[in-house]
Amino acid sequence: MTSSYLLTRQSQTRTESPVGSLLVARHGQSTWNAQGRWQGKADPELTELGEQQAQDAALHIGDISGVWASNLQRARVTASIIATAKGLEVNIDERLSERDAGEWEGMTRLEIEDGWPGYLAGHKRPNGFEPDESVAQRGIEALTEILANGGDGRILVVSHSGVVRAIERHLGVAAGQLSNLGGVVFHLDALGELTIGERFMLLDAAKVEITTPKQI
Q1: DSSP string computed for the chain
Q2: Residues whose CB falls within 8 Å of the CB of residue 62, separated by 6 or more in sequence, listed in order
Q3: Could you tell me the maximum CA-CA distance found in the chain, to the nearest angstrom?
Q4: Which CATH number fits domain 3-201: 3.30.1330.10, 3.30.230.10, 3.40.228.10, 3.40.50.1240?
Q5: What is the pLDDT of residues 104-134, one digit of tens each?
Q6: Which backbone phi and psi does 171 adopt, to 5 degrees?
Q7: pTM (two decimals)
Q8: Per-domain residue ranges for the chain?
Q9: pLDDT digits (tens, 9 = 90+) for 82-97
Q10: Backbone phi, then psi, for 172, in 5-degree steps?
Q11: What was the pLDDT predicted at 2?
């Protein structure tokens, strides 16, 4: 399924409801994505490919009424590239930032397996690692507020894989790997609760490389 088809279908679904939709996407490829390093709260910049991915996403996202982003530059710059192409400004919310990776920040999978044998296989995490419950809670609060105040338009939110996947798990959805500029559609139900839709991809694989960091 192509991104344009998926996003068009989501837009058509939205017109049947007075509330809008959020397209919550992972940022473009960062330097640490390319190196296979767990980023956490660290702030590596986008690669040249990551900037190209953001430019391609701007061509395929369709009409949007607003843009929000994490305060971390890999998300903020991705959002800025898309927002500029759409004549919009970027709103920043720190609640959309990546989880704290604690002692694993900046490490590759091999380095983690060497330093913490069995942790990854046993789904254990190091000191200082922000748990899913905390990530999901702040993420859901931010997305709910953005939707509640966003009218009936389609709003882009550029965040992080850890945030999106924590929210997916909290809402009972299997959270597989998320590609750069891939994401999930969210809505509010009649009670004002956040509900989850389908995943999407904003990139055209015929025009730009699609990257899926899998270090963890």
Answers
A1: --HHHHHHHHHHHHTTSSS-EEEEEEPPPBHHHHHTB--TT--PPBPHHHHHHHHHHHHHS---SEEEE-SSHHHHHHHHHHHHHHT--EEE-GGGSPPPBGGGTT-BHHHHHHHSTTTTTTT---TTBPPHHHHHHHHHHHHHHHHHTSTTSEEEEEE-HHHHHHHHHHTT-------TTEEEEEEE-TTS-EEEEEEEE---TTTS--------
A2: 4, 7, 8, 11, 154
A3: 53
A4: 3.40.50.1240
A5: 999 999 999 999 999 999 999 999 999 999 9
A6: -90, 10
A7: 0.90
A8: 3-201
A9: 999 999 999 999 999 9
A10: 80, 25
A11: 37
| 96 neighbors 163 (Cβ within 8 angstroms) | yes
* Sheet with 154-159, side-by-side order of all strands: 90-92, 66-69, 154-159, 21-26, 182-188, 194-201
CA-angle at 98, arms to 216 and 195, nearest 5° = 95
Contact call for residues 14 and 152 (beta carbons, < 8 A) = yes
Q: How far apart are CA 91 and CA 76, in angstroms?
A: 9
pLDDT digits (tens, 9 = 90+) for 47-59: 999 999 999 999 9
Q: Which residues are catalytic?
A: 27, 98
Enter the tokens of residue 139. Answer: 């993420």
Residues found in the chain: 216
Place of tokens 């490490």: 107
